[in-house]
Design brief:
Elements (H helix, E strand, L loop, with lengths): L2 E7 L5 E8 L4 H4 L1 H8 L6 E4 L6 H9 L3 E4 L11 H10 L3 H14 L10 H27 L6
Parallel strand pairs: 3-4
Antiparallel strand pairs: 1-2
Helix pairs in contact: 5-6
Length: 152
């Protein structure tokens, strides 16, 4: 059984919520709502996601929960994006590096990416421990940069 993890990160690149699902379930249609609810983010927060999450159900969920829609638009058959949608996509696409940087950092520093256990519960615990370790690794640098102190 293949298992994957979905994480929600904040602007500083810290992992805020982890959901572990079987690989045969689509996180695009089923789990954006779960991870957003689990993260406990405040109303008015902009949830950014790539084009894969661009479905009406996800957009409606964000709107109904007082969250700002930061999901990129994707073209549909025989209909191109409007000028506004293209500009919006360009703006939103400038920030996913924080999410990708988080995943890349977790792979480099915490050696994630390999499931070492069988079963969803054990794998979820592994993902939680990796996320905690990554957040602890990143925290001193974030605190120092927010306090305008140079780390030597």
């Amino acid at each position: 059984m293949n298992i994957k993890s979905i994480s929600l990160t904040v602007d500083q690149g810290l992992v805020r919520a982890v959901i572990t699902t079987p690989a045969n379930e689509s996180d695009i249609t089923h789990h954006l709502e779960d991870v957003v609810k689990k993260s406990g983010i405040d109303k008015g927060f902009r949830v950014r996601a790539d084009k894969g999450y661009s479905i009406a159900g996800n957009r409606e969920f964000l709107k109904s929960n007082g969250l700002k829609d930061g999901i990129m638009y994707k073209t549909v058959k025989n209909k191109s994006l409007t000028c506004h949608q293209q500009k919006f996509n360009k703006i939103v696409s400038q920030t996913p590096f924080k999410v990708e940087r988080t995943f890349g950092g977790m792979i480099r520093w915490v050696k994630t990416g390999i499931t070492r256990y069988l079963g969803k519960d054990k794998t979820h615990t592994q993902h939680l421990m990796e996320s905690i370790a990554y957040n602890l690794y990143r925290s001193p640098g974030i605190v120092a940069s927010n306090a305008n102190i140079a780390i030597k």
